[in-house]
Amino acid sequence: MPDLPARFAELILAFAPLFVHRSWRHAQLLLIGAILTPGRRTVASALRIMGRAQDRRFVNVHRILNRAAWSPRAGGRILLGLLIAAFAPRGPVVLALDDTIERRRGKRIAAKGIYRDPVRSSDSHFVKASGLRWMSLMLLAPIPWAGRIWALPFLTALVPSERACRERGRRHKPLLDVGRQLALQARRWLPGRDLVLVGDGGFSALLFLDAMRHARITAITRLRLDAALYEPAPPRPPGTIGRPRTKGARLPTLAASLVAKDTRWHAVVVSGWYGSAQRAIEVASGTAVWRHGGMPVVPIRSRARA
Known about the structure:
Layout: H1 6-13, H2 21-36, H3 43-49, H4 59-66, H5 72-87, E1 93-102, E2 113-116, E3 128-143, E4 148-158, H6 162-167, H7 175-189, E5 195-198, H8 206-214, E6 217-220, E7 229-230, H9 254-259, E8 266-270, E9 279-290, E10 298-305
Parallel strand pairs: 1-5, 5-6
Antiparallel strand pairs: 1-3, 2-3, 3-4, 7-9, 8-9, 9-10
Helix pairs in contact: 2-3
């Protein structure tokens, strides 16, 4: 094992309690190799860059990932603590939630499915991709030496396809359910911090947003343009009979607000727009409640951009 600087060794040794002594030797080799490996971080690449390509017992390193008994969730908690201490020691903790597809093929990869390829697809062109779908929870933090905000993943969960769950006799867990569990896990790990969760339009769902509201997590996502928005329910007079109201008057949808002439737009300058220079945009914001029949009522602050 190479001699590491004390600062690096201290960070790597934080993960030692996850393994027994024999497994930790191989896990340490794999961890250091993954840090040094350029390109695809496979076990073979990690062994090659560590000078162990001719090791006759290379299979012991592979078993760290497929047989050794250790908890990736406990490792994610340790990693989150290290990231928080280094990049977000105070203030709100901004997290990002997103799914990605790992392109894999083979008869032994049981959890794979066929999904829409978000990179090669467009609004008018649909491209399929076969592989594994992963849901990743990341810490969004400014990196001083990069001069921009990086997404640092610390907790990742596999989302098996519906076909794979049916063949194994298991209940299929939708993507939003996995994302909700990851976000609630972060809340349990950081009970005293303000959490802000950022996601794409796929997380614009009433059940998901209601769960974030009850967990005291501020969710930021792209709202549907046709979402049914209402004013908050008016105060209930004393002695009123019947069920309390959950909404007030109907508000225009975001699609209607974009073209309405009476919409009040405010100029805002955003710095670091997609990693580039400043950009001036116009926004219109307001408060409302989002309601749909049979679903919980979620208070939101909507914002449209011109």
